[in-house]
Amino acid sequence: MSQKLIEIAKVFQTPLKLNAKAGDKVLIITDTGMDPLLWQGLATAASCLDMEPVVTVMTPRAHHAANPASPVVHAARDPEVDLVVYLTSTAMAHSRLTDDLVDANKKFILMEELTVAMLAPGGPAWADYEVMNRLGLKIAQVYTQGSQVRVTCPNGTDLTASIVGRPGRSIAGMPLALHPGKGGGCAFPDGESHVCPVEGTGEGRVVFDLTAHSVGLLKEPIILTVKNGLVTDIEGGAQAQTWRRILEQANDPPSYNCPAEISIGLNRNVTPTGSMRTDKKMYATSHIGVGDTIVLGGTCHAKLRLEGVIRHPEISVDGQTLTRGGRILLDA
């Protein structure tokens, strides 16, 4: 066994210890777009913890939120599987499979778009998850008790939405039920606190200026116009055109739902790389979702789920400012 594989396996023990126990069956879903060292390291970590890993390898999906290949779906639904890990090159948190796992009370870990570099010492995988969660819970409480959220930024962002009746959540590497009494999950590397706004209430303008799904680090901003909870226009350069093309090809009106999520990143160990897996967790940034909201407890069943990141947002709930200028103001 190579030294690199040993190091990766050691890092992977952290999320496995938080989400599973000895004797559990762990299904690892991966694809040919991922570095094999990742699934090998994860399987090794599970074996070292006396868990039983099973690895499925498929071709990459056509787009984010697409379901895995049908044999993989059947394997994930197996009642004997205790934990499902998405170690894929496309984000599947908002796939139909995730809805099935939640309904079946299964646990899952999101590791989509993970790279070996993200597991390096001092990187996002090595953050203090207990500390992040304490801060995340403070933010989540403000979201839960609030009525309206507003996101502004000197880059031109000015978005409002209702969050009446929508719970805030801290997602920091620990198992979390996204629906009361049902299965739930987390991510790794992780670190965010989010809310799923009420569909149809979003109004304003979103300017992504850091990273976005399907295009990576942004060379030019992607600018969304939002009216009555739907994206009505997408402006910008070539990367904005890619987003426009993805949405047009989907031919799915619910996929234009926005904001599908408003989140604040908690992870101080993130340096932007162009991967949404970690960039959207970067401390005091915000990622905003477009499309599906079902797994978050919303009502929008959409074919797509896309997200982009704003580097220095100012986020407020009912006038209480939570973030400004790269700082989280609730951070003692």
Folded structure, characterized:
It is a single chain. The chain is α+β, with helices and mostly antiparallel strands. It folds into two domains: 3-119, Response regulator (Rossmann fold), CATH 3.40.50; 128-328, no CATH class. Helix content is 24%, strand content 29%. It has seven helices and 21 strands. The protein has helices at residues 3-19, 36-48, 70-77, 96-103, 129-145, 238-250, 276-279, and strands spanning 25-31, 52-58, 83-87, 107-110, 148-152, 158-162, 169-171, 176-177, 184-187, 192-195, 203-208, 211-212, 216-217, 222-227, 230-235, 261-265, 286-291, 305-310, 314-317, 320-324, 327-328. Strands 15-14-11-6-5-19-20-21 form an eight-stranded antiparallel β-sheet, covered by helices on one side. Strands 2-1-3-4-9-8 form a six-stranded mixed β-sheet, sandwiched between helices. Helix 1 (3-19) crosses helix 2. The longest helix has 17 residues, at 3-19. The protein is globular. The termini are far apart. The model has no long low-confidence stretch (mean pLDDT 94).
Q: How many strands?
A: 21
Overall pLDDT level: 94
- Net shape: globular
Helical content, roughly? 10-25%
* Structural class by secondary-structure content: alpha+beta
What is the number of helical segments per DSSP (H or I, 4+ residues)?
7
Poorly predicted spans: none
Report strand %. Answer: 25-35%
- Overall tally of structural domains: 2
Order of helices and strands: HEHEHEHEHEEEEEEEEEEEHEHEEEEE
In which order are the strands of the major sheet placed?
15-14-11-6-5-19-20-21
Question: What separation lies between the terminal Cα atoms?
Answer: 44 Å
Radius of gyration (CA) equals 19 Å
Biggest beta sheet attributes: 8 strands, antiparallel
